[in-house]
Write a structure and sequence with these properties.
One of its GO terms (molecular function) is NADP binding. This protein is an alpha/beta fold. The protein is built from 13 helices and 26 strands.
Length: 495
């Protein structure tokens, strides 16, 4: 590949999913003089919602909180299908002019910070032309999420090569997979599995079995929010949306706090709800009563009890057991039972890949994320002019992302107004712990490679949207930890 200097920009956003589009929209509207581009490795925008195409893909949060604060969700369904979410994201990008800034087929390979120049040099491979292009930018914004989009997680299963049927991972669902009349075993019990099972049954599968090692908390919710659909008629679209969003934020916070404070009561509530939705005599305690407390792992929401209705209709079943090995005809369990299958779906989770796998260095020193502490959940200690966005794990992802994108734009504007070139957060002198305090498998497998968090603001990873609104939206961009400087000065300016 030939290397050419392509262009200089103020901000380079990596990723055109929900975080990248959100960051770009705030720059477009709140900082119109800032030059920026959004780099997307794939051929289309939408991130997760464009790449993941498995049957039934949908949100597991209501769209009144999963959607952007500035863009009302107007569909009558609160729990939305993937195609509707994708259309919403692309409509948002078009309305804000963000789509004109997206460069497709641009895969970021490396990013190098020069303290002397106060610039990031970002090398990019273009899949459409075969060229390598270079950007020099003031700010780098990682909107890549934290999943490895190239490969999902699949445990090593003994005898897998002996299975004569088809094995697929939801992350790479074959477009031509014909499952009509087939016996399907879905390995896993998380959000992807509970989404797939009713969709596969409705799509004509002969029978679907959810094979899980450990149960997950599953809570049915109505797919339509009657109050949300009524409020816009009374108060108008924008005000009605804002009120619904506030209501649902409160409900999410209430459910989470109740789960942490009164885990046994919430466990009983979920169990009793499940028992009422399942056939008489169904073994709820074996299949839907986990050995851990609610919200130790994320609760799975099922719209209109679709999973339970599918089980009740006899089109799906649940088996809770450990896998011994794959066989020619299916899966042998440690109990000695064999589950026969034509198709096995490994809904076994994801791998983590921070910042899209970009090779990042500072003056030639490679970035090791675990050596740094997250500042406000959007910067890393000691790393100049680098921001990222990670949403909530216990509530709608976009609630946190929206606040971070808004705050990032304020930070860029502050630096412009004061002619600063460099912004860096000094490492705190405090006890630190894992960035994500969450027992999900993908988190535990990657805990050693992730940044750290502190035990007090602005270094703690708040789980409260209300607290984050105070800190990130209404709080100043200045504090004792954030330092600003100019490259033509010998001194560092402390805010």
């Amino acid at each position: 590949m030939s290397e050419v200097l392509y262009e200089e920009l103020d901000v380079l956003i990596v990723g055109s999913g929900i975080s990248g589009i959100g960051a770009a929209r705030y720059l477009s509207t709140e900082s119109p003089s800032t030059t920026y581009a959004v780099l997307e490795a794939r051929a289309a925008s939408g991130g997760t919602w464009d790449q993941f195409r498995y049957p039934g893909i949908r949100s597991d949060s209501d769209l009144f909180t999963f959607g952007y604060e500035f863009k009302p969700w107007t569909d009558k369904k609160a729990i939305a299908t993937g195609d509707k979410i994708l259309a919403y994201l692309r409509e948002t990008a078009a309305e804000a002019g963000v789509d004109e800034h997206i460069r497709y087929h641009h895969k970021v390979v490396s990013a190098s910070w020069s303290s002397e120049q106060a610039r990031w040099t970002v090398e990019v491979d273009r899949a459409d032309t075969g060229e390598r292009v270079v950007f020099r930018v003031r700010w780098l914004f990682g909107a890549t999420g934290y999943y490895d989009y190239d490969e999902g997680f699949t445990p090593r299963f003994e005898g897998r090569e002996d299975f004569e049927g088809q094995i697929t991972h939801p992350q790479h669902w074959p477009e031509d997979l014909d499952y009509a009349g087939k016996r399907i075993v879905v390995i896993g019990s998380g959000a992807t599995a509970v989404t797939l099972i009713p969709a596969l049954a409705a799509g004509g599968a002969g029978h679907v079995t959810m094979l899980q090692r450990t149960p997950t908390y599953v809570l049915p919710l109505p797919s339509e929010d009657k109050i949300a659909n009524l409020l816009p008629k009374i108060f108008g679209a924008e005000r009605g949306y804002a009120l619904t969003r506030r209501k649902n934020v409160w409900m999410q916070q209430f459910m989470y706090k109740a789960s942490r404070r009164y885990p046994n009561a919430v466990r009983r509530f979920i169990r009793n709800t499940n028992a009422r939705a399942l056939p008489a005599g169904f073994d709820v305690d074996t299949h839907f009563n986990p050995p851990y407390d609610p919200w130790d792992q994320r609760l799975c929401m099922v719209p209109d009890s679709d999973l339970f209705r599918t089980i009740s209709a006899g089109n799906a079943s649940v088996v809770t057991a450990r896998i011994d090995k794959f066989t020619r005809n299916g899966i042998l369990l440690e109990t000695g039972e064999e589950l026969e299958a034509d198709i096995v779906v490994t809904a076994t989770g994801f791998n983590i890949k921070l910042f899209g796998g970009i090779a990042i260095d500072l003056d030639g020193r490679p970035l090791v994320p675990s050596e740094h502490v997250a500042y406000k959940g959007m910067m890393l200690s000691g790393i100049p002019n680098f921001a990222f966005s990670i949403g909530y794990t216990h509530a709608s992802w976009t609630l946190k992302v929206g606040l971070l994108c808004e705050h990032f734009t304020k930070l860029v504007n502050y630096m412009d107004a004061n002619d600063y070139d460099v912004c860096v957060a000094d490492a705190p002198d405090m006890t630190t712990g894992p960035l994500l305090d969450f027992s999900a498998g993908y988190v535990k497998r990657s805990i050693d490679m992730m940044p750290r968090k502190g035990d007090a603001a602005p270094w703690a990873m708040s789980l409260s949207y209300i607290d984050d609104v105070r800190l990130v939206r209404h709080g100043s961009v200045l504090d004792e930890f954030l330092q600003f400087s100019r490259v033509d000065d010998d001194r560092t300016v402390v805010a």
